[in-house]
Design a protein that fits this description.
Protein name: ArsR family transcriptional regulator
Pfam families: HTH_20 (PF12840)
Radius of gyration: 18 Å
Largest sheet: 3 strands, antiparallel
CATH architecture: Orthogonal Bundle
Mean pLDDT: 89
Shape: elongated
GO molecular function: DNA-binding transcription factor activity
Number of domains: 1
InterPro entries: ArsR-like_HTH, HTH_ArsR_DNA-bd_dom, WH-like_DNA-bd_sf, WH_DNA-bd_sf
Low-confidence stretches: none
Helix content: 55-70%
Strand content: 5-15%
CATH topology: Arc Repressor Mutant, subunit A
Number of strands: 3
Length: 104
């Protein structure tokens, strides 16, 4: 795991931000207004969550008229998935060694 990924994990650690990222992954690019409706808070709070995700490199946005359209940066999540797989393999290997030790 890289310390450089800490901001991404931090950004995704908030349930509201994670909910927004999941929606963007499932539904594709969406305007701020649509994303803010899924949260139990104000549009301003949703915008702040999206700005945190943007600062961490998880999402990007572009203006379309008066609205800002948000999209996931897939490479930010692909890198995390790769690192989580590595971590999972390490834990699996440790658990296998523990099981072997206990069974012997």
């Amino acid at each position: 795991m890289s310390v450089a990924d800490a901001p991404v994990f931090g950004a995704l650690g908030d349930p509201n931000r994670l909910r927004m990222v999941i929606a963007l992954c499932e539904d594709g690019p969406s305007p701020t207004s649509a994303l803010s409706r899924m949260l139990p808070s104000t549009r301003q709070a949703a915008t702040k969550h999206l700005e945190v995700l943007s600062a961490a490199g998880v999402v990007t946005s572009a203006r379309r008229g008066r609205e800002r359209i948000w999209a996931v940066r897939p490479e930010s999540l692909t890198g995390l998935a790769d690192q989580l797989r590595v971590l999972s393999r390490r834990w699996d290997a440790r658990l296998d060694r523990l099981r072997d030790y206990v069974e012997d």
